[in-house]
Amino acid sequence: MKFSKVATAVLITAMAGGVIGPVAAHGDSEEKEKRFFESQYRHDVMEHFSYSMKKLIPILFKNAGHKDHLPEIANIMASTAKMSKSSFKKDTRGMEGRTESKDNIWENWSDFSARMDKLEADTAAFSEATKSGDMAVIVPAFKKVGSNCKSCHDEYKKG
After folding, report:
1. Angle, vertex CA 49, rays to CA 132 and CA 135, nearest 5
2. Pairwise CA distance, residues 126 & 59, whole Å
3. What CA dihedral angle connects 83, 85, 86 and 92, to 10 degrees?
4. Strand intervals (E) in 2-88
5. Whole-number Å distance between alpha carbons of 40 and 89
6. How far apart are CA 120 and CA 83, in angstroms?
7. How many distinct structural domains can be found in the chain?
8. Which terminus of the chain is more exposed, N or C, with fewer CB under 10 A?
9. Distance between CA 13 and CA 76 in Å, rounded?
10. Which range marks the domain in which residue 122 is found?
11. Measured in whole angstroms, how far is the alpha carbon of residue 56 from the centre of its chain?
């Protein structure tokens, strides 16, 4: 089948709009947020962690998802937890741009740092627990991780 030049141009434009349009729109929304580099990096690290939580909850509590992926997702969470504390080391108080980090992170660094160390240890323990396949071991280990997240967010995250 042969297309006319006009039909080809219309097809190419439509295809580009379907691909480029969403990318441009995504870029626009990120631009509106105006995060500074360190804030964006921390956000991205924590989004990986959040992604893991969102995938684990249906597997653990709703009998949905891919139970066979449990150890791999837990490994993603544990790896991300290892990166979390270091992504906050730079004191960014006073920097212009969007952040969800409260200033008291750096005012109370020893407490924050200890919480992040606990998160790292607990996610490693959770990851190890998933290898057992025993939900009586896995679920409590996961709940411990979730409790750590909540306590830290309550104290150190805006909104």
Report:
1. 20
2. 14
3. 130
4. none
5. 14
6. 9
7. 2
8. N
9. 39
10. 34-156
11. 13
DSSP 108: T
pTM (two decimals) = 0.77
147 is written with which tokens?
A: 């409790």
| Inter-residue contact 59 to 65 (CB < 8 Å) | yes
In 3D space, the residue among 91, 77, 85, 97 whose CA is nearest the CA of residue 144 turns out to be 77
Same domain, 43 and 73: yes
Question: What does the alpha-carbon distance between residue 35 and residue 97 come to, in Å, rounded to a whole number?
Answer: 5
**pLDDT tens digits, 27-76:** 445 455 699 999 999 999 999 999 999 999 999 999 898 999 999 999 99
Q: Which two tokens stand for residue 43?
A: 């956000």
Structure tokens at 26: 């995504």
One-letter amino acid of 77 = M
Same domain, 26 and 84: no
Of the candidates 149, 122, 133, the one whose C-alpha atom is nearest the C-alpha of residue 59 is: 133
State whether 15 and 38 are in the same domain. Answer: no
- Backbone φ and ψ for 110, nearest 5 degrees, come out as -65, -40
Rg (CA), the chain: 21
